[in-house]
Design a protein that fits this description.
Two copies of one chain form a homodimer. The first copy, chain A, is of the alpha/beta class. Chain A folds into two domains: about 1-80, Orthogonal Bundle (Arc Repressor Mutant, subunit A), CATH 1.10.10.10; about 110-205, Rhodanese-like domain (Oxidized Rhodanese, domain 1, 3-Layer(aba) Sandwich), CATH 3.40.250. In chain A, about 50% of the residues lie in helices and about 15% in strands. The first copy, chain A, has eleven helices and eight strands. Chain A has helices at about 1-15, 20-30, 35-40, 45-60, 80-95, 95-110, 115-125, 135-140, 155-160, 180-190, 200-205, and strands at about 35, 60-65, 70-75, 115, 130-135, 150, 170, 195-200. In chain A, the strands form two sheets. Chain A has a five-stranded parallel β-sheet. In chain A, α8 links the parallel β5 and β6. Chains A and B meet through α1, α2, α5 and α6 of A and α1, α2, α5 and α6 of B. Chain B binds a DNA duplex (30 and 30 nucleotides) through α4.
DNA sequence: TGTATATTCAAGTAGTCGATTGAATACTAG
DNA sequence: CTAGTATTCAATCGACTACTTGAATATACA
């Protein structure tokens, strides 16, 4: 009996034993995706991605739902999000490597200051800052930080004219491992804006139980 | 770069991808152990246990420390305990199997009532109950619930005479998957005691941040 | 109906992992 | 130093895994 229980536990472990599956999971933490989108973003062949997703499905960490021509995968529930988050925190605490890799990257990029969530919410409430969600619009629609404005990185250059020059701008993306916000802040600063990067991404935001806003359109 | 990060993350996943390693981890959640003790309790050969422990060591989830003739393994820190706990919660929520296996067992044993932690602490404070730690004494010394008395399951029969007949008794062991407390309660009831089982084990107790008492002796 | 598209299935290969065995290493006690 | 003990190392075998390739389903649209 005891053996059976641990075997069940290990199903969770096996699901997160492959780097690519963790990458897929983190992508799914940002919202539902089709197989193709996931394959694309994780640099996998579609067949291979499908196979990994099948494993995640078998471990009940994700759900799949056929939407017409596409199959949409999503996290099974918020508990999975918390688990992934706990795992990331443990990994970061345990492996200097992870922190080091990120820090080296951040340093090379010129030490962009990071803004914390509590800090941000206070300033948002006072109307002191403009919050930018620089992820693709689809991800924005799946859920975003209250008050954030969707300006996908790819659109940023075109929308520069609409942004306030004298107000502070805080950009965020998927999370600490995502570099979209970093690039956005770089661009903004080059153009003379006062821009900073939000330390957390949407995933951490949710994991901490802070509110998420959903767009009415779609789904 | 991104690939490297996820590879690091996966090291944690790989560490908990094997049932036996999870079993070892849960044993270590109850306190430091030597290789031999772990091998014994997890029903592994010593060499095999050593190998698994090496994997856990490489993933930084545990630490090893040479104590004279023995090597003592222990959790790297409390964060690991929280992680293991989060993983168990996820597994239990996700796999009906785990819950079902346990419930079937509990039912077959005659529906022993379960006592919750908050409930227990209130009654302990009022001096209404006697709390028994039925794990091996070594585990008791490594840490136990405040006010608990060490009566290893193997010693229970011999110490029956010392237990109060008219006071309520609450027994606990390692955790939900551990059956020592169940057996203890059964025995006590057969002998006419008013006995109940504490829902949590030491591990859950700690994970919730409740206090743990340590014996002064050893280490 | 036929064609295009998204996803899954099936089979094959190279590589990894878990368990076993027997030897090697480190420490203790006499 | 020698004998004994706890642990690890090294080599092996069978099982499993990730990824690739090419074919098979299933749905949408014309």
């Amino acid at each position: 009996m005891k053996d059976g229980v641990y075997t069940q536990f290990a199903r969770i472990g096996k699901a997160v034993a492959a780097p690519k599956r963790i990458e897929l999971l983190e992508l799914l933490c940002q919202g539902p995706r089709t197989v193709e989108a996931l394959a694309d973003q994780a640099a996998l062949t579609v067949a291979n991605a499908s196979q990994h997703l099948k494993v995640l499905l078998a471990s009940r960490l994700v759900d799949a739902q056929k939407q017409g021509l596409f199959v949409e995968y999503r996290l099974a529930d918020e508990g999975v999000l918390r688990f992934v988050h706990a795992m990331r925190e443990l990994a970061e605490a345990r492996f200097a490597e992870v922190g080091a890799i990120m820090q080296a990257y951040l340093k090379a990029r010129g030490k962009l200051e990071r803004v914390s969530g509590e800090e941000l919410m206070q300033r948002v409430r006072k109307g002191e800052v403009t919050v930018l969600d620089v992820r693709p619009e689809l991800e924005y629609r799946a859920g975003h930080i209250p008050g954030a404005r969707s300006v996908p990185l790819s659109e940023l250059k075109r929308q520069l004219a609409d942004l306030p020059k004298n107000r502070e701008i805080v950009a965020y993306c998927r999370g600490p491992q995502c570099v979209m916000a970093i690039e956005a802040v770089e661009l903004l600063r080059k153009r003379g804006f006062r821009a900073q990067r939000l330390e957390q991404g949407v995933m951490d935001w949710r994991a901490r139980g802070w509110k998420i806003e959903k767009s009415a359109s779609e789904d």
